[in-house]
Model the fold of this input.
Amino acid sequence: MSLRTRINCYTAWVNFRLLEYDVNLNNVISDILQGSNLKLLVNSMVGYPPKRLASLDDLTQNQVITRVEWAVKELKSINVIPAKSEIDGRLFAMRSSDQIFNLLGLLVQHDIQFLWDRQEFLRLRDNNKLCEVPLKWVPDQVPTRTLKANPTTQIDEDDAMLMGFGNTVAAQHSVEYEPIPEDFERYSGQQICLNYKPVQKRMKKRLSPEKAMLEILQGQFNCTEEGKALGRIVRDRSRHSIKSLRDMTNSQAFCALINTFIPDTFSNEILLRDRWAFNLALKTFEKMTHLQSPVTAEDLSNYDNQCFCAYLCTFFMLMYKFKQCQSVVRRLGEVKMMIRRAELEIGKNPAPTVDEYGLPIKTPTSQPQNEAKSHWAHVLKSCQDELESLGKLYDVSWCENWVKHVGEVQNQTRQIIRNKMKDRFDVIIVPQNMSVSELVTSLNLNLSITKCHGFAQLYSKELVAVDKKIVVRNHKTGEFLDDFSGSSKDDFSIRKFLGYNSGIMVEINPEKHPKYDIFVEVPTLSKMLRAGSEYLYMVFPGGMGLYENMLQKAVKNGEFEMVRKFVVFFNSNSYVNSRDPNTGSDRLSISPIMLFHFGERLVKVESLERSFIETPTAEIKPCIIIHYTDYERGCEGSTRVTMGMMHWEFFLALIDIEEHFPVNLGALQ
Done:
């Protein structure tokens, strides 16, 4: 575990805690004692500004030590950290990494317990219930502080000298308070959240941070089908797909975790299990939540329990907050729709009470009508009250803006993936003199597409064998050219492009090609790379052929969720103007999606039509009329499908897609 990893993970957590103050740290060790950063951090943990803490700038070393000790005492007095915790104020003030990480680890442990207590509530799918208690990690209930009966304890100068190695300022009176009762609710609605936790879990002893975080992870993954199926890409299939926190140190698991909160952000069937995808997932999360974080894929791959817990705690705090904001927006929509309906029901014209001659009409239904209007009046009043309550509990416009922002970031991420699919390659700056094997291991590179081979930049003339692949990068446009990935026409030769014979070993001198960077395949992992040089490897194959084959296979195997994700991903606006260089198609040919099994035959859907069907019991049910082409029999036909026919599960997934995209499925060909 490197010091850099710990610094980055704890910096991310502190930045999350300081979000509401609009303060960001670059390095938690060097920045925590600058300005009012320590005061703001303590404030966010206890819920009120500590009276004796202020800016630490322009203070002597002894004064900084004293204020660090005050901060620790304040955290202990409010039960944020255990009373028996030992933090050396002198070493902390000297920016000792061990002491700083010790304190931050205790604070993270407090936040993980906060999450564990509320996890069942935060996973609710009912928008109304989830909006009942706003998620706030800064306490809003300040306890009444009572002085101890004998609060003054004298510390003589000799003891102070021993404790502080010369710190005579400690010879003073200390003020002590009675401990806060354990059952004191520091957060509004705390008991409402705890009521959703099973009784047996409430009676449990407090779990370690690692076990608590693992339980939160498993619970979140089990909320979605994608999360439940994650066992295919981690160690084994079991009741819980994530067996340990270490299983989260790969891109596919982290992308799947983001998808449990914001569906269809990533498609693991398309992305390579690689550092590039991991970094993209991390940056996407940080953009969505406005978090400034230095954490990279390399940090999380260098697994450490404490650091990983700190980053996952940050992730869940912010994503659960977003989920609640999203529920607020959805609930507002539901309530407004109910208000409109109630107003329509109340505003309906009453039935006539007299006929054309002025004689009274007997209306046996008048009482039910009055009862109905009374019911809708009650509904209207309840909805208006709920609307007012939501407005008091939440900043509605802020919630709406956040939901909109996340949607924009999701589209930006798809565009980034599209651009990288076009580029195909990722470039690594070699950090120091090292072998290819050391580089691949340290950065967790995936060279599977090129059969464990990457490409090293050519800086001097070199003999290149016939069987070695070559990649050229245009200085001006940054475009990559090659003749093996499938991104170019079949008759294109990169050697001929550079002016060399393609059938023999040639000597390539990069100085003769000033407009291009030339990368040559490195067939061995033992080759040494010099510091500052560029190493190239493939993260996406060229062309769309691979994805079309995956789609066709998914259709035949009935992998409906995979097909749906492909359609959502490739039907986004980011892909409308894409073009496959081999086929010339404007987008991925998703005609295989329109195939489904009809008996023993495979037919192609041409169009869909919504209709109704009368069952033998005279019951009217909605149905879909499918117009199809049967290529095996050489004819066209149509059939009606009701929603209850389970052997049409795959087709029903297509219906859901049609609901998502206001286009005819036949137009997707």
